[in-house]
Each structure stands twice: as structure tokens, then as C-alpha cells.
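Final report, closing paragraph on structural work. Over the funding period we assembled a curated collection of sequence-structure pairs, and we close with a single example.
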Amino acid sequence: MPSHQLTSRQNLGVERGLRAGVADPRLYGLDIGERKDSAMNYGKAVTAAQAYLKAIDGDEPQKVVDLFADEFTWEDPVGTEPLSDKNVLHQRYATAAGKIRVIQSGPIRGSHSDAAALPFEFELQLDGSDRPKRVRVVDIFTVNDEGLITSMKAYWSPEDIQDI
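Its predicted structure, as stored:
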């Protein structure tokens, strides 16, 4: 089988190393196209996604905002007007601070670029709602060379919200 068709079933150690950002896919014969070495940010993207998950589970919205680069876009959910103002972003996270419980629902998946996907669920008691809600989400992050988030896109729809 050609090396560019390497799958996780063939070599779990390689796949784990790639996902964690500690292995260079080129060492395993994977064709990842032309890239500059600093584009090996998928490890940084996975780290940023982990930090984001931990930060949104806390009650300090500034910790979330500090994960974002000065120039960023935040689209939650995808299809709404993206935000790019850290003050507005802070207000959004401050609204949920201390009211949200986060559950990672699968492994964070890195890519062969500067992006990672984070599947998770969160539970939240919305103001004026008689029952708490659970929302299933997949967030996609891109990061810069410093590991700061330059883009966050949240994928969820009304079908992903349920009473608990």
C-alpha cells in the first residue's frame, strides 16, 4: 500500500504522534503538499483547542479571550456574523461564565496544517428557561505561529440542542 494511504489501523503510534503534533507526517511518507516548517502548527492548534476547552469550563472569560490573536474571527454558530472584537468576545463568554459545564465528546483532531477540531458538549441553564440545555458542538480552530487562535468556527444547529 502506498505510504500516502497510511491509516490509523495500520500504525496507531504514528497516528497518535501526528495528532499530538510531535511527529512530522513527511517522515512517514505522507504527502502533505508544499509547506513551510512553521506551518507544522497542528500541534499548536491541538494545544490551543485543549486550552480553550479548559478556559470555557472556568469562570474567567479573560482566559478565553487571551487565547485569541489580536486579529481573529469568531463565528458561533457558522452562518452567523463573525466577531472580531475582543471586547465583544469577552462579553459573550462573561454571559456564560460559571453557568456552563463542558464535556469533551471525542478526541481533538489535528490536521496537516494550522487547524484542529474539538468535539464537545456543554450544559447550560439559560436565563428564563425552566430546564437546562445540552448543546453538541464541533469547534474548528486555526492558529498562528505563536499558537494563538486566528479563527474559531462553531458547528451546531437547533437539532444539537436538547433539554436535560
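The CA atoms of residues 129 and 163 lie 10 Å apart. DSSP finds four helices and seven strands in the chain. We thank the funder for supporting this effort.
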